[in-house]
């Protein structure tokens, strides 16, 4: 059967993009660099379903909320940049998108600095969704994931939103493009590696009946270590850099194939 091409709008630059269906990973990428799930319009979360990813994100966000806030109803806002959902107690007077680092007062929705001062240009925070979560028990992340899986997910997410490291990579890529072909490849696979580590590890935690859980977790942990080794040297000019990037690319493909056997 031939693929079907749908038209969709990039949530960032609003450009019209082609969306191929069926899409094995439900992932769409615009020329501007923004990537999103073609089904739920949030960040890519393969191998998790949209429903599972939403449940995971609720647990993830609640893990970072102080215990005294659990008596409040929780409010969830999704920024127009498609960063991770912003979760906070409904009485809070400051919240911030961890992706674009824009802060705002949830009571007025005006953009503010962390100190509560209005920005020079008065404008409202733009959101894709804004809702109060049902006042019901949401299972917290268990101790086991705090010790292992949560920390790995947290690391991968931090690397994904690390603007300093990304800018460093972009500068090195422009400067050394002809000498180090691996830089261009690293730019291409960086997001894929970090998405697979973060959501792959979360998926393993949520899917309790996986027969290969230990192997997949070990594989994803090793993938994170490989990524850290590749980006460890600032100038990317060590002699084996291209080989290291090729090895990283092979490892992420291996991780994807291992996960696909269970999805």
TrEMBL record:
GO MF terms, alphabetically ordered: zinc ion binding
Superkingdom assignment: Eukaryota
Domain IBR residues, every copy: 9-50
Record keywords: Metal-binding, Ubl conjugation pathway, Zinc, Zinc-finger
InterPro entries, A to Z: IBR_dom
PANTHER family: ENHANCER OF POLYCOMB-LIKE PROTEIN, PROTEIN CBG08668
Protein name, entry field: IBR domain-containing protein
Organism listed in the record: Ancylostoma caninum (Dog hookworm)
Source taxonomy: Eukaryota, Metazoa, Ecdysozoa, Nematoda, Chromadorea
């Amino acid at each position: 059967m031939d693929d079907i091409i749908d038209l969709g709008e990039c949530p960032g630059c609003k450009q019209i993009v082609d969306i191929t269906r069926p899409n094995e990973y439900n992932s769409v990428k615009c020329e501007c660099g923004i990537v999103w799930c073609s089904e739920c319009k949030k960040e890519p979360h393969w191998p998790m379903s949209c429903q599972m990813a939403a449940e995971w994100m609720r647990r993830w966000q609640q893990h970072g909320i102080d215990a005294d806030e659990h008596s409040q109803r929780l409010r969830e806002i999704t920024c127009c940049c498609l960063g991770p959902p912003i979760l906070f107690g409904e009485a809070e007077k400051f919240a911030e998108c961890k992706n674009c680092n824009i802060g705002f007062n949830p009571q007025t929705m005006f953009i503010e600095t962390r100190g509560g001062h209005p920005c020079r240009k008065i404008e409202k925070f733009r959101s894709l969704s804004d809702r109060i979560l049902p006042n019901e028990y949401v299972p917290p992340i268990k101790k086991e994931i705090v010790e292992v899986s949560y920390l790995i997910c947290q690391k991968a997410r931090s690397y994904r939103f690390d603007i300093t490291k990304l800018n460093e990579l972009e500068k090195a890529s422009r400067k050394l493009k002809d000498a180090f072909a691996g830089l261009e490849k690293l730019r291409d696979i960086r997001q894929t590696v970090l998405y697979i580590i973060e959501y792959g590890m979360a998926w393993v935690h949520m899917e309790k009946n996986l027969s290969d859980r230990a192997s997949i977790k070990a594989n994803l942990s090793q993938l994170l270590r490989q990524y850290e080794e590749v980006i460890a040297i600032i100038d990317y000019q060590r002699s084996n850099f291209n080989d290291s990037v090729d090895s990283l690319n092979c490892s992420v493909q291996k991780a994807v194939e291992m996960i696909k056997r269970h999805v």
